[in-house]
Design goal:
Length: 447
């Protein structure tokens, strides 16, 4: 048994062009937690921060007007930040992107219970902000990335179709604008070749340029010729040295740890610690907790010492309230109501069985009529072969045996149906009031 409880929470922030991840490791002794809860129970006046988890509500992206303000058809470049977490796209002449959505695709399964008209109302493919409830289609999500490298070009094509459609680009099946597209650090040549082939042959763009988002951010914000870039993405983290304004490729280091690992770790940690709320704890809510309530420990060892103190814990602990839905309990039935309900269920079961028996009876009659007609006209070989093949019979002898079996079955079924319809409900007998004879009094009669 471990004497110390270690809770590791990794938080993940997104800036304009680069992503930064922060790590918060809290370590407290088990006794400290027990003392803290004892103090809180005995002193309810101690105030604690209480926050409610708000489920993210997404709105489908609109189709923007084309060409928009400051957009010159055939000249203004389209900038696409093709991240493995979010995809952002817009015009180079505008400061803010037009679109920002999760870079995933979902193919919901068709519900067989729904009618064709209702099923047609649900799109076969949902992309980005069209996915209203991502937890409902969590197992149908698809992405074009393997880690942070684009490998599934069929998914990438569908997402690009969605992107250009929502941007309003409509130019006879092509995109007459140069494109600036972000890619991962040291992207493999094969992946870049497939992406270029998709962009040029499928969309007919006039020009394509690649870049790394973190290097764009460094060049825009730092203004320093040499430095060190720590690019924390959704699936991987890169440490990129910059020397005299240029990246040193052979010194770049990659760590296979990113925002997805942090969210997944938080998700599993919460489910392990709070098994009662396992259904209420989802990946989306774990992500919201990391983005909203976690902080960065600038001095890890000092943070451990602080959180081991009861006073520091009381002042900084944060409580998060999960969405609560009051369970509606069914009303308790009385003994008479239970008896009546049981009788009603029995009556319905009898009706269902009777309906099935009638359907089977009608099918047997129809089959018997067909077989008898074929038996009477044995000279018509074409009709005979058709009947034998339809009812999967081997020959005339087999057909005649089936006719006898059907006649017996129809007779028995008719008897059962007639018996079920002629069942008379038992008449309730009224209680007879016993009275003495006219010539005797009650006392004499009782004696």
């Amino acid at each position: 048994v471990l004497d110390n409880l270690v809770i590791s929470i990794i938080t993940f922030f997104t800036s304009a062009c680069t992503r930064c991840c922060c790590l918060l490791l809290l370590k407290t002794r088990r006794n400290s937690f027990q003392q803290a809860f004892a103090v809180l129970y005995e002193n309810p006046s101690i105030t604690m921060s209480l926050f409610a988890i708000q489920d993210l509500k997404v709105r489908p992206d609109i189709v923007h007007e084309y060409p928009g303000p400051g957009v010159t058809p055939g000249a203004t470049a389209i900038v696409i930040d093709n991240g493995s977490y979010h995809c952002r796209a817009g015009w180079a002449s505008q400061e803010e992107p037009l679109l920002c959505f999760k870079n995933v695709l979902a193919k919901p399964r068709k519900d067989r219970n729904k009618k064709d008209a209702e099923a047609a109302a649900v799109p076969t493919v949902q992309i980005g902000n069209d996915i209203v409830n991502i937890e409902a289609v969590r197992f149908q999500l698809r992405t074009q990335f393997d880690r942070n490298v684009v490998t599934h070009l069929h998914v990438q094509e569908q997402i690009l179709d969605y992107l250009f459609e929502r941007m309003g680009v409509d130019a006879d099946g092509s995109v007459p604008h140069p494109v600036l597209l972000t890619e991962c650090v040291t992207n493999p040549n094969y992946s870049r070749m497939l992406m270029a082939e998709l962009m040029f042959e499928c969309y007919g763009i006039p020009g394509l340029s690649y870049g790394v988002d973190s290097l764009f951010s460094y060049g825009l914000n730092s203004g320093v010729g040499s430095g060190l870039v720590v690019s924390c993405g959704y699936h991987a983290t890169h440490v990129i040295p910059i020397l005299n304004g240029r990246m040193v490729p052979d010194k770049v280091r990659r760590i296979n740890l990113g925002g997805f690992n942090m969210i997944n770790f938080m998700f599993r940690l919460l489910q392990l610690k709070y098994p009662v709320h396992v259904n209420a704890i989802t990946l989306s809510r774990s992500e919201a907790m990391i983005h909203s309530y976690c902080s960065f420990a600038y001095d890890y060892m000092e943070a451990l010492k602080d959180w081991a103190l009861l006073e520091y814990y009381d002042q900084n602990v944060t409580k998060i309230q999960l969405p609560y839905n009051q369970t509606v309990t069914a009303p308790v039935l009385t003994a008479e109501q239970r008896v009546e309900k049981r009788k009603e269920l029995s009556r319905r079961l009898v009706e269902i069985n009777l309906r099935k028996r009638e359907e089977k009876h009608a099918q047997d009659k129809e089959m018997l009529a067909s077989l008898e007609a074929a038996d009477e006209n044995l000279d018509d070989e074409e009709n005979l072969n058709f009947v034998l093949q339809e009812f999967e019979l081997k020959g005339v002898d087999d057909m005649r045996k089936t006719i006898v079996t059907l006649r017996d079955r129809i007779a028995k079924t008719s008897q059962k149906m007639n018996a079920a319809q002629t069942v008379v409900q038992p008449v309730e007998e009224k209680p007879v009031l016993l009275q003495p004879p006219p010539n005797l009094t009650i006392d004499q009669w009782v004696v």
